[in-house]
Amino acid sequence: MSNSDSAASVASSTPATGFSAVHDGKVLRVTITNPKRKNAVDYDTMVALGDTFVAAAADRSVRVIVLTGEGGDFCTGADLSATAREAQRGITPDMTMDAANRLVKAIVDAPVPVIVRVKGSAAGVGVAIALAADLVYASEDAYLLLAFINIGLMPDGGAAAMIAAAAGRPLAAEMALLGERLPATAAKQAGLFTAVVPEAELDAKVEAAAAKLAAGPRRALELTKKALNQATLTSLDTALAAEKSGQTELLTSPDFIEGATAMLTKRKAVFTD
Q: Which is an annotated GO molecular function term of this record (predicted)?
């Protein structure tokens, strides 16, 4: 397959809804396009996003990938409003976890640098998707939120492991156990964001980095990224396996049903387990 054919396959691999992928010269621009749900992702979107990153890895014309969300938020995690529809289609919690883990691994293992642009919320599996990238640029209003505990779940997608690797266990525990927001400035100080800039400067910051990486030595960048990951994410596969086991159990628990129902109906959850 030629580079142009491969690029076309990447750009056309996106589903009708959920996200878009556009090949712009040496840059693959991927945008989550569900702003009405603050860019929450359902099973189909996670599978197709994973497919897109895997396809991009085989495309020599792609030198850098930029991932962002449409509108005011990056990604608020899994789309719980789709849970019932997915269950009717036979999509199990195990399948959902596999889709999320495959997407995160595809970002981490991509042979080219991945830049994430964060505005507003990066929550739930959206945190894992963001932190799987190599460079994370955020606006001043951005924040990270592991709110799983508030609906009877545990963090997944390797989010807790990546936070612990970059910022230490105490912060990872605070975010995972208390389910409170981490503002952009604190995330930058903790080493989770590459840079935090005013919203008006965010696009320019991302584009400058993308242009520099696109013009850089592809193989040297690939090996540098691989070495960084080997030095900092050695426990990621183990964490993903442990999270899949735990989350698959929790996704069928009464506490999750209560937590999800409470969130969707905007009331306080009452856990009984």
A: catalytic activity
Ordered by start, the domain boundaries in the chain are 19-199+218-265
The pTM of the full predicted model, rounded to 2 decimals, is 0.92
Nearest to 143 by CA among 115, 166, 119: 119
| Cβ-Cβ contacts under 8 Å for 59 (sequence gap 6 or more) | 3, 6, 7, 9, 10, 28
Q: By C-alpha distance, which of 76, 78, 70 is closest to 145?
A: 76
Is there a contact between 151 and 260 (Cβ–Cβ < 8 Å)? yes
Nearest alpha-carbon partner for 53 in 146, 166, 144, 132: 132
Tokens read off for 248 = 């698959």
What tens digit of pLDDT does each residue of 64-122 get? 999 999 999 999 999 988 988 999 999 999 999 999 999 999 999 999 999 999 999 99
Please give the single-letter amino acid code of residue 151: I
Q: What is the CATH number of domain 19-199+218-265?
A: 3.90.226.10
Instruction: Report the distance separating Cα 102 and Cα 81, nearest Å.
Output: 22
